[in-house]
C-alpha cells in the first residue's frame, strides 16, 4: 500500500470537487490538519472516513486504497490483493491469540497448583486451606474464561460433514468437548453435532 500515492490521489479528488482542505474537513467533520496529513501520505483515513470519501468522490474504497481509478480487470486484481493481505493479517492475529491463550493456561495452572501445594505443605488451619483451594479454583475458572475469550474468534471451525466454516457462540465453545485441534460443535449449516477442526483461516 503506497501511502504517498493514496495521499496524492486524495488531494486530486478533492481538487476535482473544487474543495479546499478546510471545506472538506468541515464537510466530513475533521480538521484541515487531518486532511493535510492524509494527503501528505502520513496517515490513512479510518474506515468510516474512507466510506464517506468514497461516496463524496464517487470512487470505490478499493480505488482510494490503490491511489488510482481502476479498470474492471485492475479492480479485481487489487480486490484479491487486499483480501489476501487481510487473510494473512487475520492468520497472524489468530496465531498470537492462540499463543497468548497457551501462556495464560500455563500461568493459571502453575498458580493454582502452587497455591494448592503450598496450602497442603504448610501447617495451616483447615479453614485457611479451604480458602486456598477455593482461591485456586477461582484462578482456574478465570484462566479458562480468558483462554476462551482469546481463542473463540481466533480462526474458524470447519464442519467435517458439509465443510462449512463458522465461529461458534461463546456458550457452544465453552460447552463443547475438545481435543487440541478439534471441538464438538453444532454446525449452523447442516445442524449436525460433530468434532469440528480448528482452522486459522
Q: Which properties best describe this structure?
A:
201 residues; alpha+beta; 434 Repressor (Amino-terminal Domain); 3 domains; four-stranded antiparallel β-sheet; 8 helices; 4 strands; elongated
Topology:
Elements lengths: L2 H14 L4 H8 L3 H8 L7 H11 L3 H6 L5 H50 L4 H26 L4 E3 L6 E2 L3 H6 L6 E5 L6 E7 L2
Antiparallel strand pairs: 1-2, 1-4, 3-4
Helix pairs in contact: 2-3, 6-7
Protein described:
The chain has 201 residues and is α+β, with helices and mostly antiparallel strands. It folds into 3 domains: 3-70, 434 Repressor (Amino-terminal Domain); 84-151; 156-199, no CATH class. The chain is 64% helix and 8% strand. The protein contains 8 helices and 4 strands. A 4-stranded antiparallel sheet has the order 2-1-4-3, with no helix packed on it. Strand 3 and strand 4 (193-199) form a beta hairpin. The longest helix has 50 residues, at 72-121. The protein is elongated. The model has no long low-confidence stretch (mean pLDDT 83).
